[in-house]
Structures are given as structure tokens and as C-alpha cells.
Amino acid sequence: TARQKHLTFLEYSAGFDEEIRQRYALMNDLRLALAQRALHIELQPKVSLSDNRLIGFEALARWEREDGSRVRPDQFIPLAETAGLISELDQLVVELTCEAIKQLNAAGIDVPVAFNASSDELFDPDYFDTLIGTLKKYGVRPEQMNLEITESRAMESYEKIAPQLKRLIEMGMAVSIDDFGTGYSSLSHITHLAATTLKIDQVFVRQIGESPQAAQVVEMILRISERFGLNAVAEGVETLEQRDLLLAKGCRAGQGYLYSRPQRLEVLIDKLASNTVF
Ligand code: C2E
Ligand code: CA
Ligand code: CA
Ligand code: CA
Q1: On the chain, which terminus has fewer CB atoms closer than 10 Å, C or N?
Q2: 240 with 258: CB under 8 angstroms?
Q3: What is the CA(60)–ligand 1 centre distance, in A?
Q4: Contacts of residue 133, Cβ cutoff 8 Å, sequence gap at least 6
Q5: What are the boundaries of the signal sequence (predicted)?
Q6: What is each CA distance from 70 to 43, 139, 159, in whole angstroms?
Q7: 96 alpha carbon, closest ligand
């Protein structure tokens, strides 16, 4: 714009400094919030598409600051990654997930709860032992959890973590490849895939009715999952039309606003105490 053209270098760099300063302040706030365990999780139900029955949950990290404002995960997760705070954050989420599982069980609800792990941290040789140690500490069985691997560049050397993932699967934990069909979580890993589940990314689900290409990607992922004996879960199911198209293509599980937004555990337990069908 005209105004931008007239910015002097000094004005420009002042704005730039301000941006860096804000980022730095947010980073410090996040570090403090983590130290105080001030983050929480919300759970989003996963359902069987044919009969709306509850089959699991996904735990999603939430950060509400002291002034009540919320920072979105697509802001603070990348920030945690660059600030070297992601393994601390994900460890907190695993602990909160274990606590949630105990509370769900106490309310008579026993379905697996998924948590997200950035694939970078899976390369930490201590990651899996820490995870198993945390489960033991809380008295949670591996079948009660589901590890969702979010894609990153580290997926390129997926073979390196495959043995540990296989170990988790042998213990009974589900392992999902998140956002399947996008970016790095591509077909090249399929031959040495150590997973139980592929999650169809919401960009394809959103366009399944309008875009023949998106519909084809969904079909392809469903065929791959069948061929390799994996489960498939569709993300971001928002409409009945999307649900029906997914069912017609043979997808049996999904999650999305059609069923429920991610919600605090207390709210969900109240709703589910009487009925586990959405
Ligand atoms: P994701 O793992 O792909 O999670 C799904 C995202 O889609 C969530 O966003 C969820 O709220 C949103 N979503 C679910 N259903 C619908 C729908 O029907 N429509 C639309 N438009 N969106 C839907 P959220 O909670 O903002 O999380 C964003 C991303 O942040 C996650 O994507 C995940 O990659 C990351 N993330 C969240 N929590 C954690 C965590 O504890 N650890 C790590 N490493 N990453 C996390
Ligand atoms: Ca996920
Ligand atoms: Ca996803
Ligand atoms: Ca995602």
C-alpha cells in the first residue's frame, strides 16, 4: 500500500522489533504457564459414522491466559516447537490425558483417548520410556490411549522411530498418523508404516462434496487403509452430506463439529452420563 511505501527503514524496523518483542513475551508466558501447569485440555469425541456411537476422544491442548484471553493451538504449538518447549507441553498433555481417562472411567466411560505428539520429540531416545512410565504412574493401560503423530519433517526418517511405535502397538496402544494425505505424511512411509490408524485430513473431508480430487484422495486413503489393515478416521466432519459421502466410500469413523466441538471433560461427562450416542 501507499503507506507501506513511505515507511522509513527506522519505522519499519521499529515495527519488526515490536513483533519480535511480542513473540518473546508470549514465549515467556508459555514457559511460565507450563511451569505452573496452567494449560488444560479439551476432548473431542470420535464416533462411529453409521450409528453415532462414541468410540474415543482426542485430547487437544488449550491455553487460557490469566487475563482470560485464549491463545490458539496453531499459534502456541509452533511457538512451543521453536522455543524447545514442545516436549514439556506434550508431557503435560499426556498427564492431563491420563487424569481425564481416570475421571471418564469413574463415570463409566471406557474408550481410548488420543493425544498428539510432534514427531520431532519421538526421536528423543527417552520419549517412549517416559510415556510408558507416565501410564504406569497413573494406572492407565496402553489400550486406553492413542498416540497421534502430527506430521513434521522428522517423518522423513520415520523408519528410525518405527521400532518403538511397534512396541507401543504390541502393548495395545493405537498409533494414528495425523493429517494423512498432506505434507510429509505421504505414501513413502507406507511400506514401513508402524501404525494402526490413518486420520484423513480435514481439508479433504471439507471438500469431499465439491471437489472430485478431494473425493479421490479420500477414496485412495480408504483403499490404503484397507490394503494395510489399518483403521481410518475422518477429521473435521461438519455436515450430514460429508458424513453420508464418507460412509458411502466405506469410512466408518469420524470426528468433527457435526458431533461435537472439543469440550472440557466436566461438560462431556455430564452429557455422556446418560447417553453415549451423539
Ligand atoms: P489436529 O491434531 O489435526 O487436531 C484437529 C483440529 O481440528 C483441532 O484444532 C480441532 O479443534 C479442529 N477440529 C475438529 N473438528 C473440526 C471441524 O469439524 N471443523 C473444523 N474447522 N475444525 C475442527 P485445534 O484444537 O485448534 O488444534 C490444532 C492443531 O494443534 C492440532 O491439529 C494439532 O496438530 C495441534 N495440537 C493440539 N493439541 C496439541 C498437543 O497437545 N500437542 C501437540 N504436539 N500438538 C497439538
Ligand atoms: Ca490430532
Ligand atoms: Ca489432524
Ligand atoms: Ca492438523
Answers
A1: N
A2: yes
A3: 6
A4: none
A5: none
A6: 17, 32, 37
A7: 1
